[in-house]
Amino acid sequence: MATKIIVLDDDPTGSQTVHGCLLLTRWDVKTLREACDDEALLFFILTNTRGMGDQDAARITREVCVNLKAALADRVDITPIVVSRSDSTLRGHYPVETNVISDELGPFDAHFLVPAFFEGGRITRGSVHYLRMDGREIPVHETEFAKDSVFAYSHSYLPDYVEEKTKGRVKSQDVERFLLEDLENCLPRLLALERNACCVVDAEKRENLDRFSENLKRAASRGKRFLFRSAASLLTSLADLPPQPVAPGEMFGYARGKAGAVIVGSHVKKTTLQLAKLLELKGAVPIEIDVDRIASEWEILLEETQQKANAAHADGMIPVVYTSRVERTFSDQAERLAFGEAVSRFLMDVVRNLPEDLGYLIAKGGITSNDVLSKGLALRTSRVLGQILPGCSVVRCPQDHPRFPDMPVVIFPGNVGDDDALAESCRRMSGLA
User: Fold this and answer.
1) Which of 193, 212, 296, 384 is geometrically suited to a Cys-Cys bond with 110, CB 3.0 to 4.6 A?
2) pTM of the predicted model, to two decimals?
């Protein structure tokens, strides 16, 4: 019986520490069956629910689970491990998504929160989740991410975070804590878990999650059923893949021989710093989208952007299309989400009209990356080739794509990398690093 790790991913960056697997932007039963038959140990279903409200996130998650249940109905040869992959800075629809998964695919003996993402400097110690930045370890509730207009929270101590997000349904003192010193020999505790116990897991380095994963697999072989709410690093340990076939510095070999383009949608501080460094790169041509013009001047703005991008590409330059950096305020969550959706729709119109002989495309931002794959490029599936930088995956359009056959796409999360990382990804894809 084969294990298949099935990841419901609320943005496309969950693939960032693995390779060789499929990313699905469709989740009909036929597509899910194809993914189950694929030789890779795991696959990702890109739901993009972080860009939705609670009700839509629940609806999409339920739809995926119902279809997944149908796809697995006669597959006695597969033991599924289900992961709800989300943000390493604790943003996302928790516990909405794990509740729906439990309803449709349960019962589970426990669900685990494992937000560590080592490549992005996210670690958990003493059940407190930290962001490593500028030589410091900052509790995540003190960062800009905790002030997110949709997913704000007040606690870095994960049991308190659970109580906050479940509105007291799960009390902090009832959360099972797996500390660093527990991970080596935690099998007896795992075997004793029942009735969807809520657990939080420490991790400072990959070896911690490697040991934890070994114990998880032993418990699963004895019939225990677990659900995971995790960032990317747990997936690396669960999959235990060999090194990627093409080294990060050689990824330019996938480019189609022409200059590429960059689409930047993320608005976090890290992205703005990276964008500034990218625009210092020789050959980078800035094309700023004034988001205040989108609602009233869509067609005019799109034509202007297309002309600038085409002219830059014709000169062998790299068009860098980015949204204006001015921070906006919104009256409520619905207004903020609607605005984000409109901006994303506009950026996808830009993607659809990029030059057909584009060498590569870099998509900066989690939701932006998802929309580029599913809407801008209209990919049903794509395969992860590997990472060009820690946390940044490269996928490729299929050979029969109507506009961009075999074009590589770099999925670049908004909150990953040092200030020079976006520019470095361009240098590498251009063969200049």
Assistant:
1) 193
2) 0.84
What's the token pair of residue 301? 């703005």
CB count within 10 Å of CB 374 equals 21
Q: What's the Cα-to-Cα distance from 32 to each of 12, 24, 42, 70, rounded to whole Å?
A: 17, 8, 12, 9
Rounded (5°) CA angle 21-24-25 = 150
Query: Per residue of the chain (433 residues), what is the pLDDT tens digit?
Result: 688 999 999 865 555 568 889 999 999 999 999 999 999 999 999 998 987 889 999 999 999 999 999 999 989 899 899 999 998 999 999 999 999 999 999 999 999 999 999 988 999 999 999 999 888 999 999 998 999 888 999 999 999 999 999 999 999 999 999 999 999 999 999 999 999 999 999 999 999 999 999 999 999 999 999 999 999 899 989 998 888 889 998 999 999 987 899 999 887 788 889 999 999 999 999 999 998 899 999 999 999 999 999 999 999 999 999 998 777 777 787 888 788 888 889 999 999 999 999 999 999 988 888 899 989 999 998 889 999 998 889 999 989 999 999 999 999 988 788 899 999 999 999 988 6
- Listed residue (283, 274, 263) closest to 362, CA to CA: 263
Q: Check: CB of residue 383 under 8 Å from CB of residue 395.
A: yes
SS3 275: helix
Question: Counting Cβ atoms within 10 Å, is residue 59 exposed (0-12), middle (13-18) or buried (19+)?
Answer: middle
Instruction: Name the residue among 87, 17, 86, 123 with its Cα closest to residue 227.
Output: 86
Q: Are 32 and 71 in contact (CB under 8 A)?
A: yes
Cα–Cα distances in angstroms (integers) from residue 115 to residues 3, 201, 216, in the given order: 23, 8, 16
Instruction: Tell me the residue type at 134.
Output: D
DSSP codes joined into one string, 311-357: HHHHTT-EEEEEE-------SSHHHHHHHHHHHHHHHHHHHHTS-TT
DSSP state of 88: T
Token pair in block for residue 377: 């490029």
- Who's near 382: CB < 8 A, 6+ residues apart? 22, 23, 25, 373, 395, 396, 397, 398, 409
